[in-house]
Design brief:
The chain is mostly helical. The chain contains seven helices and no strands.
C-alpha cells in the first residue's frame, strides 16, 4: 500500500487498522486545535466507534486522552518558549473553557500555567 501524503483523503479500498490509527494520530498532531475523530471516520468511511476502538487497541489510550496530552504538551511548550499570554495559548491549543484548561493543566503538571511559566523561565535564565 502506498503512503498517502494526505491521510484524510477518502479511500476506496479497505483500510487497515494501522492506517486508521496513523490517520488519527496525524489528525492530532496536525490539527490539534480542532481535531476530531469523526473527521477520520468520515474520511475513511468507517464508524466512529470502530476508529475509536482501533486507536485504543493500538495505543492503550483513548483518542481524547491522546489529544488532551498533545494539547497540554503544546501549551507547556508555548508557556516556556513564547511571550503569548495564557489566554492566547489556551485558545491556540483548542480550548474554549478557560477553567477546564486550568484544571487539566494543573492535574498534569501540578501547578497553574502561570506558576509553570515562572518556574520554567527562572530555570532558563543564566545566573549572574
Amino acid at each position: 500500500m502506498t503512503q498517502n501524503r494526505f491521510p484524510l483523503e477518502p479511500r476506496t479500498e479497505t483500510v487497515s487498522r494501522e492506517a486508521l490509527v496513523q490517520a488519527a494520530l496525524h489528525e492530532i498532531t496536525q490539527n490539534y486545535r480542532e481535531a476530531s475523530l469523526s473527521n477520520v471516520a468520515r474520511a475513511y468511511g468507517v464508524s466512529l466507534a470502530y476508529v475509536s476502538e482501533c486507536v485504543r487497541a493500538q495505543t492503550g489510550r483513548t483518542y481524547k486522552e491522546l489529544l488532551q496530552k498533545h494539547r497540554m504538551e503544546t501549551a507547556a511548550r508555548l508557556l516556556r518558549r513564547s511571550d503569548m499570554n495564557i489566554q492566547q495559548i489556551i485558545s491556540m491549543v483548542g480550548y474554549e473553557n478557560t477553567s477546564y484548561f486550568y484544571r487539566l493543566f494543573h492535574e498534569r503538571y501540578g501547578v497553574s500555567p502561570r506558576e509553570y511559566r515562572q518556574v520554567r523561565t527562572a530555570r532558563s535564565r543564566p545566573r549572574a
